[in-house]
Amino acid sequence: MTDEPVLIAAFSGRALAQSARRAGYRPLVADAFGDLDTRNAAAAVQVIDGAMATGFRTKPLIQALDALAASSETKPVGLILGSGFEDKPRLITTLASRYPLIGNDATTYKACKDPAVFFAKLDALGIAHPETHSNPPTDPEGWLTKRIGGSGGRHIRICDATTSERRRRYFQKRISGDRLSVGGVFGTHRTRIALSRQWIAPSPEQPFRFGGAVSIPDVAPKLRNKLESAARDVASAFRIVGMASFDFIVSDGTPHLLEVNPRPGASLDVLDDDKGSLFRAHVAACLGVAETGATPDAPTSARAMAILHADRGALTLRATQWPVWSADRGPPGTYIPKGAPLASVFADAATADAAEALARARLAELEDLIYEHS
């Protein structure tokens, strides 16, 4: 157990804070929510008001991180970034000049999120991906438009006759198939890779909104090898270190790589263990030191997480008897806009299908509970 303080910045720092705590660190978290679970896991929390609406801004974030560092009796070992920085390489550079960055630098983020650079590299590596262009298609049927640096699926729109060229957006041919993600820790001799299956929770405004993920999907060995090999090749090409996730759509047996997030992602909730092994391995890989701790045990059951969105309407949370399988729980008085993330649920079962089914059932149960109490 290290008991070292570590800074964490993310739209939601809860999963990273819990993993850090399991690994023996004292997490100091700056995020957009400050929910009850993050506060329980963290040694200190600073909430960046409005970050989800505007994105992280340099001055408020630095003030929050400086306050967190000052609250610690010992100097934090470094700063780990979660979601919210995919389109902010200049901010990453600024942060890296002030705190030891435990993760990928701005150059890696920029290369992974620049469609012209990223998909050209995939072509050079012989890795399949959807047809992608910077200009709108002549015929919009079957095409999507995505924001450069977007994450979580909220930025994806279906092209139509009114779709036009816009700054910071690109266009991609839509592919149908199974959504599989390769997550793990890269850039170390003890590279760990695991698969998860993802699904969307569409709304009229956001048809590709991220809905959830489950570990240990039933994947044929040949396909698994293709997915893992592609992830390793891309991680090497972009010099990715530490936790990262690679999102694919598998169509007719061929995995097509959609994007790479060179940071801890949503799959951390379903791939980590009760020792915080992924967090510990991430720190070791990024700092170039030997990993400590026992090798994690192979999982014996599948784990699912799913996000509950406020699709019934905006609400203000009241005192609620939250189920033990829920997370990202806001304190009473928290206002949740319509369609915004409301909470998360978890489920464990013998198979991925059973875990996902249980998570979906718990979403409905939790939705009824919260709206009845609000």
From TrEMBL:
Which InterPro entries does the UniProt entry name for this protein?
Answer: ATP-grasp, ATP-grasp_PylC-type, UCP016817_carboligase
GO MF entry, a single one? metal ion binding
Q: Which UniProt keywords apply?
A: ATP-binding, Nucleotide-binding
Q: What is the protein named?
A: ATP-grasp domain-containing protein
Q: Where is the ATP-grasp domain?
A: 219-287
The protein's organism comes out as Hyphomicrobium denitrificans (strain ATCC 51888 / DSM 1869 / NCIMB 11706 / TK 0415)
Xref: Pfam families: ATP-grasp_3
Q: Which PROSITE patterns match?
A: ATP_GRASP (PS50975)
